[in-house]
Known about the structure:
mainly alpha; Serine Threonine Protein Phosphatase 5, Tetratricopeptide repeat; 4 domains; 36 helices; transmembrane; transmembrane helix
Amino acid sequence: MATSVAPTTIVHEVLRKDNYANWKVCIQNYLLSQDLWDIVEDTNEPPKPEDNEEGYRSWRKKNAAALHAIQISCSLDIVSQIREINSAKLAWDALANLIQAQAMGGNPPSGVHPGAENSSFQQFVPLHKAINKGDWNSVKAFLEGHPNAKNARISANGMTGLHVATIAGHVKIAEELMRIMTVQDLEIQDVFGVTVLCVAAYNGMTKIAQSMVKKNHNLVGIANGDGYIPVVAACARGHKDMTHYLYSVTPLELLFLENGAHGIDLLNYTIICKMFDIALDLVQRCPRLATATRRPSHSAVVTLSHMSSVFFSSSRLSFWQKWIYFCMQVQLPTTSSVHVYIRQNSLRVTEKEASIRSRVVSLLRGLVSNFFEFFGIKQVYDMKLNHVLAHELVRCICREMSSLDGREIIDRGVYAAIFESVRNGITELVVEIVRAHPDLIWSRAKNSRDIFQSAVEFRQEKIFSLIYGLDARKVPLITSVDSLHNNILHMAGLLAPSSQLARISGAALQMQRELLWFKEVETIVSPMSKEMTNQDGETPYQVFTRNHKDLLIEGEKWMKDTATSSTVVGALIITIMFAAAFTVPGGNNQDTGFPIFLHNKFFRVFIISDAIALFASSTSVLMFLGILTSRYAEEDFFISLPRKLIIGLSTLFLSIAAMVVAFCASLFIMFDNQLQIVVPITLLACVPVTLFILLQFPLLVEIFISTYGSGIFDRKMKRWY
């Protein structure tokens, strides 16, 4: 009696669209245990009955067993797509392609199955292998013997030879196949509805795409199984050159709203992939796309609100980068410059380009490019170009948004975009939206918090500073409360998001920044707001104390650790410098008791630097002792403790520098006119000291700026609303 194999004995659950990785491991292990994996893995053709009847019977039995195991381990809807396949290997490959295509967004057309032509495509296995290997001679020989193969489906998922050549990136084979194929042949779609141009778009094969479009321009308008035309497919994969080329050859009317969602998809993907030149050109030529959406709350403005990196207000630049940034002039691209095919030097290498002159020019360009990259100039330029393009795109979108009514504003996700922009600190987007719809200044999130309460909650100082640019209308915003009866000062009492705290070095400076926020908000609220209680009966100060309890403890620990380690260094310098004052270089005169090199100019340098090092290190140690004995109240972290730390670190650095000078002066005294000895030793002595200063000096600068700097808020904000 035959036994049946339940799928649960092979795999834990049948194959679906979302569990292929686990299913693959289980079925592979099962086939290995049954000595059937060779049938699936074998790349050779199966034996023929006329050549080896016994071998063929053995192969047929194993193939049937492996194929049966694969089929009963799949869900019914997947089995229906491979039921025509009678080879375990082809079924295995078809499943891999099927799941991969579904993951990429492709959906096979109804009624078409990856094995429907199994009886015919098996004869094309040699052709398939030759194309994958890039062996044009073998491909040519096969086509001469099988003329119909030029446009035949040669794989389980319905791909033609041109599909395979394009995926493999074999340009020569693809061009030769296109030469012998008809215009209509290029429009053949595989089982997932993918044309050869879509395949080229997926893989960024721009040169192949050019040849395809040149032969059949209709390809640019044929969508894949998921409804994406080639330019959208290329953009979704992030292929910039390919997207630029396809955008330049795609008819504009194809992107109009009247012709489907192609324009909406392209606009959103160009924003996500930071191709703002195309996005800006598209919005300028098709203004209605600016506010269009496939589904509620998924418009272009919502997409932009999640991309803080493409706006200047959310960028964190060093001093050097800021200097380069503001010195650069960036021009918006014209329409003609957007419609560029691709970089021509990426397509082919001509004889002229191979000439000596061309090589020299390329070398010079490479040197200039490397120079700009080394100093970060190119990166800053690209960043500023993105910022300018993104800001201009926001302006265009908001101009179209100004005509929306209340219902449309909700459907387009404008409210969501505002508060997501506040969360990410995108000032440009908030300002432009409010300018387009002034009433949106009163917008409230789901928790009834307005724009400025949310800005305080998420610690976005540039958004909060906009309140200084408002007229009397800022009063209702300052005094408003949320659904829990928290006012704006209560928001300052909440702990900052971890992403904001992570930008600040050390828990003590984080506590200082939190106090700075609380005191800044405190200056603009009324006395009554300071004592107002929320739903839990807590005042803003009580909320601050409760939420910052742990940070206070961490700040105390950080301060003590820093002070302790610095005290050790300072005490060591005191010991050395005190001893050096009585054991001067060269010793003392036995008769007079005065130093032998008393009148040497370097001796004076030695004594002065020794005294400076001694006094500075003593001051440093006293300051750090003051930190160690502090009471560590919340207020101490605002000015008192940072001031002591600044003095302590400054005098410590001064004492270290003076100690090195004293050491160098003693070398010059002892080895007079022997620079070959003095200079190397001096340089070596400077290495550990320099490393210490480089590691600690940025901390000193950060503390000084946060304590005595101009602040993070712009109280002189001009009226913007």
